[in-house]
UniProtKB/TrEMBL annotation:
It comes from the Eukaryota. This is Branched-chain-amino-acid aminotransferase. It comes from Penicillium alfredii. InterPro entries: Aminotrans_IV (IPR001544), Aminotrans_IV_CS (IPR018300), Aminotransferase-like (IPR036038), B_amino_transII (IPR005786), BCAT-like_C (IPR043132), BCAT-like_N (IPR043131), BCAT_family (IPR033939). It catalyses: L-isoleucine + 2-oxoglutarate = (S)-3-methyl-2-oxopentanoate + L-glutamate; L-valine + 2-oxoglutarate = 3-methyl-2-oxobutanoate + L-glutamate; L-leucine + 2-oxoglutarate = 4-methyl-2-oxopentanoate + L-glutamate. PROSITE patterns: AA_TRANSFER_CLASS_4. One of its GO terms (cellular component) is mitochondrion. Residues 1-39 are annotated as: Disordered. The modification N6-(pyridoxal phosphate)lysine is found at K223. CDD domains: BCAT_beta_family. Residues 1-24 have a biased composition (Polar residues). Keywords: Amino-acid biosynthesis, Aminotransferase, Branched-chain amino acid biosynthesis, Pyridoxal phosphate, Transferase. The keyword Amino-acid biosynthesis applies. Its cofactor is pyridoxal 5'-phosphate.
Amino acid sequence: MGSTAPTKAELNGSNFKITRTTSPRKVPEPGSAEELSHSHCTDHMVTVRWTAAQGWETPEVKPYENLSIPPTASCLHYATECFEGMKVYRGYDGKLRLFRPDCNGERLNTSAQRSSLPGFKFEELKKLVAKLLQIDGPRWLPKSRPGSFLYIRPTIIGSGPHLGVQIPKEALLFIIAVPWPDFTKLKQDQNDDSSAPAPKGLKLFASTPDAIRAWPGGFGWAKLGANYGPSLQAHGKAQAMGFDQILWLFGEDRQVTEAGASNFFVVWRNAQSNQLELVTAPLESQLILPGVTRRSVLELVRERFSTEKQQAEGSSLAPLQVVERPLTIHEIETASREERLVEAFVSGTAYFITPVAMIRNNDLDISTLGQGGKPAGYAAQIKSWLEAIMYGKEEHDWSYVIEEEK
């Protein structure tokens, strides 16, 4: 009889070891230095160890603490690391919700395998996140603060002691929750003059040909730490010049890919058909991250900005046609010059839906605000639709309600 390989344990988000903190951490006030630091985590964290021999161990919920890994850990030498960005929302009905968590789980699983880390059943991730928030949610997102959120960071690292170019034999999945500022309001809140108008949008600096974020056959489509470190120097230089983000361009034709770590959209009137279009870079080239918010924007626009829907509801906004194709900075410049550019915005978990006011390409400043010097309102409407789902104003199957402890 032939020998049978031992069965490796799958990731299971339904069984936990739980150790509760005896020293609760201070909950920072909204807008405080602690919140703005992006580093003041909640009381607990989730950890799950994996080994090549046994598979996934039992998940643990335990007090937030520093990790202990050997100096030879694979993640420190060979970039075997990936992560996700999610939020948990305190709804106006008092409930805690995640937004499309299976999409994040599926992407983390894909990113893990792209970086030579173990895969898992992606639907288990939302169970791990939910358990953490069942414990920390009531204190860190109290029902007295509806409309607030926490940022969730699930991460997988190669954690074993095996130095050398090889697939990691050990890995660690951990999940932390962090109070996070609302970037769509932050600039206005930090303005000394409370009567000043809200900022019109982000200022983007177009990348130069010698700075490339992602390339065909690479890993720009996966959420790996290796995507971000090499881009931070260009980002810092742009901020020092007064810009908010880098608009990453690629290739001889200067294709528009992402804005910082966000997906980029433009609304314009097609020069040939005169049709209003929502245009964004495609996924097929694997130059951009398949954002969960991006996916949601496109699905909502296809459903709710159709000609039939807009006519039925008597909307003041004209119907939009979704176009996923390569677009270049030259096309955006031409559309602005010909007054066909209606609006531009970014989407992502951190920046959510934020308008773009201008792009600097070489020495040229391109206004992306359209006629009248302000956004047309498409981004604002999309943001409103998404917030209604996230905060429970609209029941939707994209919402995942977390059952809290009594």
